[in-house]
Amino acid sequence: ALHRDIDSKNVVVNYDAREFKSVFEMSLAHYFKSQKIKFLYEAITFTWETKVYTPDFFFPEYGCFIEAKGLWHTSNRSKYKNFRDTFPQVPFLVAHWLLAREIPRKEYIIK
Q1: Which of 2, 8, 84, 103 has minimal CB crowding within 10 Å?
Q2: What is the CA radius of gyration of the chain?
Q3: Which residues of 2-35 are buried (b: 16+ CB within 10 A; e: fewer)?
Q4: Considering the entire predicted model, what is its pTM?
């Protein structure tokens, strides 16, 4: 079951005993689980200079990351570019929210 709490600043989506920051992240997690793709959610944090960045998904069997992205605010684009410039060797993909249309939908229960 899915439970969504919304307050003035945060969206928290609970699914499979985890808290996700968006329905899109939860949908990706559900898809990875349904395909038996092992992943860790927000498990690895990169730090450099005065910056900190935690990608959404890490796939230990493949050694790569996926960031689920909705709106690309200027600060997010700048942080992402700086991350890529600093860690070019890190396998990394961005999943845009429009991809959500391609993810098979299951019966999510929103309370």
Answers
A1: 8
A2: 15
A3: bebeeeeeeeebebeeeebbbbbbbbbbbbbeee
A4: 0.76
